[in-house]
């Protein structure tokens, strides 16, 4: 759920990847916007801190665990709407404070799930589009010194949607398996404005970068009822190779003189395996679930028509493996058709800490709560809220950074 943690200032020769020495960044640090920023879909899942790999029971199973589609016994239409507010606060040299906010409301999901009549067991197919990665974020800083004043604003917007078809089957009374075939498609609009003013000169850099992502991916899922009350699940996302098309415009304004550079790059980016597993215990009115996810982000890899060996080495040094833990619980009031829930997620940033410009001061954690209400026994309204935060420090620039995200998700599942 969170993209580039640091301001980047692209060079003309390789806009996406490297940072300008004039801004005192280490050139070897690489930040990949599409890595490790799963957004979360559906009001119930958000309210459970996404601890739903076992217990997902609506159209979001197409993303969280396709095997769980077998639990849907009637045709279902599913839709979701999200609102997120992203806030960045920075303090330069322990003195100068700056803050910026970015809010976006977006369509999160549209899914259709259809059980297929069978002689025995269950066979279910599903189709849908879900916004699973968000590039919405902002960054700003100020250093208003008389002889060397600096100001910068960075904004990103966009995301990646999964256009999916899924199928699930009951292999036995207690075991289900499923798969989701996905076409990933989306884009990122990136804006960077950096101003430097001194007694003798003025300098301004303005970057506009547009990235378009596309790929085909596969997700496998399994679900097993171990006992009457205890269930387990496992999902695997196979490595996905994205095609990235980038257009950029870079303007440099120095003492009233302007220079503009326009360019285009095309390259590929491979994401590694993603594993998620969980256990859930349930009674008639109570459910508690724990999930764990693992991804080795050092296996991110660029591929293109130009030499990327050094860049891939820096990418491996910039990232690390990440293990996240998610916990959620909910209680049902059958007489009112009401469910209340809450959750907690420990979701460590996948950065290695190898570079002084990218040190984690407080790792990423979030809490959540939500509720569901059954309307006339055919429609379930879900509302979920999650708040996440983390802190970074750029020791090269003596820059402390705090990031917070507040996300509200509304969704409706209607079953015929």
Can you walk through the features of this model?
With 416 residues, the chain is mainly β. It has a single domain, classed as Outer membrane protein transport protein (OMPP1/FadL/TodX) (Porin), CATH 2.40.160. The chain is 5% helix and 63% strand. The chain has 3 helices and 18 strands. It has a 14-stranded antiparallel barrel. Strand 4 (137-144) and strand 5 form a beta hairpin. The longest helix has 10 residues, at 309-318. 42% of the residues are buried.
Write the layout of secondary structure elements.
Blueprint: H1 43-47, H2 61-64, E1 76-92, E2 96-116, E3 123-134, E4 137-144, E5 148-170, E6 175-198, E7 202-225, E8 230-237, E9 240-254, E10 257-271, E11 274-282, E12 286-296, E13 301-304, H3 309-318, E14 321-333, E15 338-346, E16 359-375, E17 379-394, E18 399-415
């Amino acid at each position: 759920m969170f993209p580039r943690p640091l301001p980047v200032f692209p060079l003309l020769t390789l806009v996406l990847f490297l940072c300008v020495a004039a801004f005192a960044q280490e050139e070897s640090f690489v930040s990949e916007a599409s890595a490790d920023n799963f957004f979360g879909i559906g009001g119930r899942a958000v309210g459970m801190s996404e601890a739903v790999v076992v217990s997902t029971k609506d159209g979001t199973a197409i993303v969280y665990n396709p095997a769980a589609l077998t639990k849907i016994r009637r045709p279902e239409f599913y839709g979701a709407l999200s609102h997120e507010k992203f806030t960045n606060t920075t303090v330069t040299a322990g003195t100068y404070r700056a803050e910026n906010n970015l809010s976006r409301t977006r369509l999160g999901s549209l899914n259709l799930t259809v059980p297929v009549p069978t002689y025995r067991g269950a066979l279910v197919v599903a189709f849908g589009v879900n916004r699973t990665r968000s590039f919405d974020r902002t960054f700003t800083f100020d250093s208003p010194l008389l002889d060397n004043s600096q100001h910068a604003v960075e904004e990103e917007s966009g995301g990646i949607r999964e256009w999916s078809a899924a199928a699930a089957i009951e292999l036995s009374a207690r075991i289900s398996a499923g798969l989701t075939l996905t076409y990933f498609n989306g884009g990122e609009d990136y804006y960077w404005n950096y101003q430097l003013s001194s007694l003798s000169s003025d300098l301004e850099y303005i970057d506009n970068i547009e990235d378009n992502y596309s790929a085909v991916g596969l997700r496998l899922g399994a679900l097993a009822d171990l006992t009457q009350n205890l269930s387990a699940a496992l999902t695997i996302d196979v490595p996905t190779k994205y095609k990235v098309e980038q257009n950029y415009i870079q303007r440099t304004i120095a003492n009233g003189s302007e220079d503009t550079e326009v360019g285009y790059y095309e390259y590929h980016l491979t994401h590694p395996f993603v594993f998620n597993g969980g256990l859930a215990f349930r009674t008639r009115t109570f459910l508690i679930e724990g999930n764990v996810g693992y991804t080795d982000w050092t296996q991110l890899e660029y591929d293109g028509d130009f030499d990327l060996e050094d860049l891939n080495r820096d990418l491996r040094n910039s990232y690390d493996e990440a293990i996240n833990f998610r916990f959620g619980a909910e209680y049902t009031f059958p007489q009112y058709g009401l469910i209340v829930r809450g959750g907690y997620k420990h979701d460590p940033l996948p950065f290695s800490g190898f570079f002084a410009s990218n040190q984690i001061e407080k790792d990423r954690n979030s809490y959540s709560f939500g509720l569901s209400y059954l309307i006339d026994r055919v429609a379930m309204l879900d509302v979920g809220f999650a708040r996440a935060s983390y802190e970074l420090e750029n020791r090269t620039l003596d820059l402390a950074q705090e990031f917070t995200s507040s996300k509200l998700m509304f969704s409706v599942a209607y079953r015929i």
